[in-house]
Design goal:
- With 735 residues, the protein is of the alpha+beta class.
- The chain has 4 domains: 37-210, no CATH class; 219-224 and 234-279, no CATH class; 310-418, Phosphorylase Kinase, domain 1; 425-729, Transferase(Phosphotransferase), domain 1 (Orthogonal Bundle), CATH 1.10.510.
- It is 28% helix and 20% strand.
- The chain has a 6-stranded antiparallel sheet with strand order 3-4-5-6-12-7, with no helix packed on it. Strands 18-19-20-22-21 form a 5-stranded antiparallel sheet, with helices on both faces. It has a 4-stranded antiparallel sheet with strand order 9-10-8-11.
- A hairpin with a 3-residue loop joins strand 5 and strand 6.
- The longest helix is centred in the middle third of the chain and has 50 residues, at 278-327.
- The protein is elongated.
């Protein structure tokens, strides 16, 4: 009889037995081997895994005796070392109820009884078949890649490949070939994917396809199921793979599929693997973003640049307005300037200097003007323009160029001068304009230029030092009258209150014209302009370039060349031949003697020490007297003896300053300056001490002559025989 206790036990057994059975059947899967990353489901290394792989104590992974290279959602890749004596039975290790070799492999076999279909072995694979005798192969094996098999050393090598490239290797059909050895394998798919041709059997591989048994696909959501028929027993199977944009193993029993953080990364976008128009969209979007960013940055830069430029322009315009109002300089509209120069046409360009380009043009009343457009619009150029406006507007002299006005709109700095139709003195001396100047015109130009510079030094207080006296800054009007121009580098001198004879400033000017002592000690004085004018006198005499590298090394500098020739009494070697083209010049005693007189004056102006040079008042007076005495012969026993007071320079211990807006320039009497007294008396000479050898005009010749009454700067230059045609001058004549 069944008791109540027995029924209770039976009931509990029926309830809990399935649960206990499930717990007993559940075994965990070890998915890691050594330090390697965990393998995805269904692979593992314990009995609880659907597809079990072998893991060694060293962390190596095997199927049978073959090492596993990789595992993915479609296949298992094994490495098959080439081995000549590997028994064919080992090939069966590659077959199970859940994986088998795919038909995309080439199986290398030996000693088969049946001939195989012809197959081709790549040439790079052939050398690896020649193994040592320890592998059971002979060193003289010859393997042909062109046919189905070849015989060598008693061993027969064959290639086996399935015709069906989408299925699996037929194990039964392979056994029927009666092969004795399994040498290696080549995975055709992997061989096609390799970009290099250096493939060896030492790294040969075989591809195994895998599946899970079951007639239903147990795949998770967002996974693709591939149904497979087992090549072993013909039973159904399946394999799961996550869709694009999802990651995981794809199985319900595994981790399933999860959406990736980004369905398409940049690499996939650029390669077009995202499908649709993704790549086109990302390219267009990137282009639009880049253009927008560049436009935004450009707009910001332009805004700040325009704002800065506007601020500078306003400041400059305010300063120009204050200056022009103080000195009554007219301001022309920029449009009128542009119209007058035909939009700054190259046809109307007169010349280009270091600081700007000069154009010709007509403004009002069809009056020709010279328009100077400043090249650089920085602070330095602004200071020079302001300085020129202040200085040139404060001085009036017939031989100083007149400033007619300026234009300061649109950030431009433009000065308008009176037009000089005959260009510059330099252009005529270098034959760039006209056919050359006669000697009387040259003396006239030199005299008027000296008078203009003397006016700057002596007739106004404080004096003005031009600092850039040169032949290209001496303009010629329609009557070849001289006009000194370009006051951009000019500086105010020192008043007579102080007894300092110079201003301290960095040397500026044009090479070849700069006072060497000023360049050496940075002391600017009126004698710096005297030196530059001495170079101009030499240009007038010789017609040579001030700096010419085509001349010998020691004659590149014209001032040094002239001083050397004058000191040696070889003036005739450097006189411009065009001076004597006119017939009357050859027989004109005044022309020849005045050339010597101007050369003597240039010689004194080019003295290295400033105290040895005459002042500009003395130079101007001597040249003026030379012009007045054109028809008076300089007698052999008579000479003009100059009595001068000391040519004291304006002095101050302060540093140089440009003319400020509250500085007043006015004409004053040349008190304390060079006063000239002319007398015609017999010449008397006496020897003097030699000059300092450091001066370019210092002379070792004991026959240097000085006037008894002259200042230290009034030394005559040595005169030797001067022959031109039938004219000659005695060795003792002072010209």
């Amino acid at each position: 009889m069944i008791t109540k206790h027995s029924l209770l036990i039976l009931l509990l057994s029926l309830i809990f037995l399935p649960i206990i059975k499930c717990q007993v059947n559940y075994r965990p899967c070890q998915q890691s081997c050594g330090s390697s990353k965990p393998f995805p489901y269904p692979f593992g290394f314990s009995s609880g895994c659907e597809i079990r792989l072998n893991c060694t104590v060293h962390g190596e992974i095997f199927i049978g005796e073959f090492p596993v290279q990789s595992v993915d959602s479609n296949s298992i890749i094994l490495k098959i070392e080439s081995q000549c004596n590997r028994r064919f039975e080992t090939f069966h290790q590659l077959f199970s109820h859940k994986y088998a070799p795919t038909s995309g492999n080439v199986i290398m076999l030996q000693n088969c009884t049946e001939n195989q279909s012809p197959c081709t072995i790549p040439e790079p694979l052939l050398p690896s078949l020649s193994k040592s005798e320890s592998d059971g192969c002979h060193n003289n094996n010859n393997v042909s890649g062109g046919g189905g098999s070849s015989v060598s050393g008693g061993l027969k090598l064959s290639c086996y490949i399935e015709n069906n490239t989408r299925g699996f290797v037929n194990e039964t059909k392979l056994e029927q070939n009666g092969c004795k050895y399994f040498t290696s394998s080549i995975s055709l798919e992997r061989l096609r994917n390799r970009s290099d041709s250096a493939v060896s059997l030492d790294i040969a591989t075989i591809e195994l396809g895998w599946w899970l048994q079951g007639d239903r696909c147990l795949c998770s959501d967002h996974a693709n199921c591939t149904q497979i028929e087992s090549p072993i027993d013909g039973k159904p199977g399946f394999r799961c793979r996550c869709n694009e944009g999802f990651a995981g193993d794809g199985f319900l029993a595994g981790n399933g599929c999860r959406k990736t953080s980004s369905t398409c990364n940049p690499a996939k976008y650029m390669s077009g693997r995202c499908g649709g128009h993704a790549r086109l969209i990302i390219l267009i979007g990137g282009f639009i973003f880049g253009v927008s960013l560049m436009v935004a940055l450009g707009s910001i830069c332009c805004y700040f640049r325009r704002r800065t430029k506007l601020r500078v322009t306003k400041s400059t315009k305010r300063r120009f307005t204050e200056t022009t109002n103080n000195y009554s300089v007219p301001i022309y509209p920029y449009k009128d300037i542009e119209k007058a120069t035909n939009n700054f046409s190259e046809k109307q360009r007169l010349g280009t200097g270091a600081y700007g380009t000069v154009y010709s043009g007509k403004l009002y009343n069809d009056e020709y003007v010279a328009i100077k457009r400043i090249k650089h619009r920085d602070n330095e150029s602004i200071e020079q323009v302001m300085n020129e406006i202040k200085l040139i507007s404060s001085v009036r002299h017939p031989n100083l160029v007149r400033l007619l006005g300026c234009s300061i709109e649109y950030g431009e700095q433009i000065l308008v001068y009176e037009f000089m139709p005959n260009g510059t003195l330099n252009q005529h001396l270098q034959r760039e304009k006209g056919s050359g100047l006669s000697w009387p015109f040259r003396v006239k130009i030199a005299t008027e230029t000296a008078q203009a510079i003397a006016h700057l030094h002596s007739a106004i207080n404080p004096p003005i030092y031009h600092r850039d006296i040169k032949s290209s800054n001496i303009l010629l009007d329609q009557n070849f009258g001289s006009k000194v121009a370009d006051f951009g580098l000019s500086r105010l001198g020192i008043t007579e209150i102080s007894h300092v004879s110079h201003v301290s400033t960095a040397p500026q000017g044009t090479p070849g014209y700069v006072d060497p002592q000023y360049h050496q000690d940075f002391h600017l004085s009126d004698k710096s302009d005297v030196y530059s004018f001495g170079v101009v006198l030499v240009e007038i005499i010789t017609g040579l370039k001030v700096v010419d590298f085509s001349r010998p090394h020691n004659e590149v500098n014209l001032a040094s060349l002239a001083v050397d020739r004058i000191r040696k009494g070889l003036l005739k070697d450097i006189i411009d031949p065009i001076v004597f083209l006119e017939p009357e010049a050859t027989n004109d005693g005044w022309t020849l003697s005045s050339i010597h007189k101007v050369a003597e004056l240039a010689f004194r102006c080019l003295a290295f020490h400033r105290d040895m040079r005459p002042c500009m008042t003395e130079v101007a007076t001597e040249l003026e007297q030379l012009s007045l005495n054109k028809w008076d012969s300089f007698g052999e026993n008579s000479s003009i003896i100059d009595h001068f007071s000391s040519c004291s320079s304006s002095s101050s211990s302060e540093n140089e300053k440009p003319l400020s807006s509250n500085t007043t320039l006015k004409d004053v009497e040349p008190k304390g300056k060079c006063h000239l007294k002319l007398e015609t008396v017999p010449v008397s000479f006496k020897s003097v001490d030699r000059l300092n050898s450091n001066s370019p005009v210092s002379v070792q010749d004991p026959h240097i002559w000085f006037s008894e009454q002259s200042s230290p700067s009034s030394n005559s230059f040595p005169s030797k025989s001067f022959d031109h045609g039938s004219v000659s001058y005695g060795r003792e004549a002072s010209l």
